[in-house]
Design the sequence.
């Protein structure tokens, strides 16, 4: 059987208990070597066969899984963060279905959660934004035209931009074509939850310059929006005057 496992954003203790248990038992581990923290591989059992998928094609990954299955072995396919975001996981699942190889999927802590933790931020701040857009800038890999960054930026919602820290000039320009202002708060979070994590706070107008000054060109998330600012309203849920299913509110 093949177990897709979300490795979490970096820190080895941010894999789930289920993911760690699967990793400990695996006969074969295929990990996304460009981003998965190698410290996680210390959790594997002695004698486990370990492969770095950064050096493999989809066909090679599938062939390795197929061989393991033939020998009755369990494979863990370790993806960074959560596999459902930019994980190229669906094509593997569909191919395994076609081969008749069973699989399951264990979610992970995505890097956008790790980055919020690094910043002490809440994406869905009352009175500011109730929407988080997870996206990327078009690059060598395309993005559907209707999802181009200026179009998404028109909402002015909280935004976490993946896979785009090598093109911060273009990102900045696209954001300014939308609803963000030069002074809209922004942050660059490099390697969230890794020992070498770095947080650079800036604004949309200074994004590219701040990234260049910090020398960050990869493995970073660009976070945009007024949720990084100081103004918001308090939540209704914990307001003394607000009645919920679990608590009777006091009249003001
Ligand atoms: N599935 C992953 C995303 C893989 S795409 C997830 O859920 O997080 C790879 C991109 O994710 C990187 O280019 C970067 O933008 C982001 N990323 C992954 N790990 C990161 C980390 N620890 N800190 C900041 N950004 C990270």
Sequence:
């Amino acid at each position: 059987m093949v177990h897709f496992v979300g490795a979490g954003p970096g820190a080895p203790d941010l894999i789930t208990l289920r993911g760690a248990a699967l990793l400990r038992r695996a006969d074969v581990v295929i990990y996304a070597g460009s981003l998965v923290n190698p410290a996680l591989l210390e959790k594997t059992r002695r004698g486990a066969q370990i492969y770095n998928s950064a050096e493999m094609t989809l066909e090679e990954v599938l062939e390795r899984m197929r061989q393991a299955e033939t020998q009755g072995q369990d494979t863990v396919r370790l993806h960074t963060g959560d596999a459902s975001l930019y994980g190229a996981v669906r094509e593997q699942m569909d191919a395994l279905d076609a081969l008749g190889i069973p699989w399951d999927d264990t979610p992970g802590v995505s890097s956008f959660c790790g980055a919020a933790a690094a910043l002490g931020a809440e994406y869905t701040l009352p009175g500011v934004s109730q929407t988080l857009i997870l996206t990327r800038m078009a690059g060598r890999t395309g993005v559907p035209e209707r999802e181009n960054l200026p179009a998404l930026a028109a909402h002015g919602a909280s935004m976490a931009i993946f896979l785009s820290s090598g093109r911060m000039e273009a990102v900045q320009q696209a954001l300014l074509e939308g609803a963000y202002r030069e002074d809209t708060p922004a942050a660059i979070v490099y390697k969230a939850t890794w020992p070498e994590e770095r947080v650079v706070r800036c604004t949309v107008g200074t994004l590219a310059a701040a990234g260049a000054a910090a020398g960050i060109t990869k493995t970073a998330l660009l976070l945009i929006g007024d949720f990084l600012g100081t103004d918001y309203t308090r939540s209704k849920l914990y307001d003394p005057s607000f009645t919920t299913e679990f608590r009777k509110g006091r009249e003001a």
In short: The pocket of S-adenosyl-L-homocysteine is lined by residues 9-10, 35, 79-82, 85-87, 110-111, 114-115, 162-163, 189, 191-194, 219-221 (CB under 6 Å). The longest helix spans residues 58-70.
